[in-house]
Design brief:
Layout: H1 9-36, H2 48-65, E1 70-71, E2 77-78, H3 81-119
Antiparallel strand pairs: 1-2
């Protein structure tokens, strides 16, 4: 096969590493928000290098997904690069649109909170 098999040791290790990094992000993000929310915008937290590794690994995982075969609904293994790219591309398009709408609403709520907090003396 030309593509990475979805049940290969490499794919399983990739998913295990991704899971560990996701747990790290779930723990680290609230701590940064809770204790460093009032820092200067140029403040560099001690976790900056690890955060860069985290983001880089997630980007690499997305890229590798385009080169990983999959099993369709009928159980047939698909390892054709154009078929995988088309399927993954359609899924990513939906995820990107969902993430974009979430990000816009998230940024709007942050701006509203930042505007309201100083007026209440916080």
């Amino acid at each position: 096969s030309k593509l990475i098999h979805p049940f290969s040791i490499f794919t399983i290790a990739k998913h295990a590493l991704s899971s560990i990094l996701t747990v790290y992000a779930f723990v680290e993000t609230p701590v940064i928000i809770a204790f460093y929310w009032n820092q200067d915008s140029c403040f560099k937290p001690k976790t900056a290098e690890m955060d860069l590794c985290l983001e880089t690994s997630f980007i690499l995982e997305i890229i590798l997904q385009f080169f990983t075969g999959y099993y369709d609904n009928s159980g047939l293994y698909i390892d054709s690069l154009p078929s995988v790219a088309k399927t993954v591309g359609m899924v990513m398009k939906g995820l990107v649109l969902g993430e974009l709408s979430f990000s816009i609403s998230d940024k709007a709520s942050c701006l509203i909170l930042l505007h309201l907090l100083p007026s209440h003396g916080w």
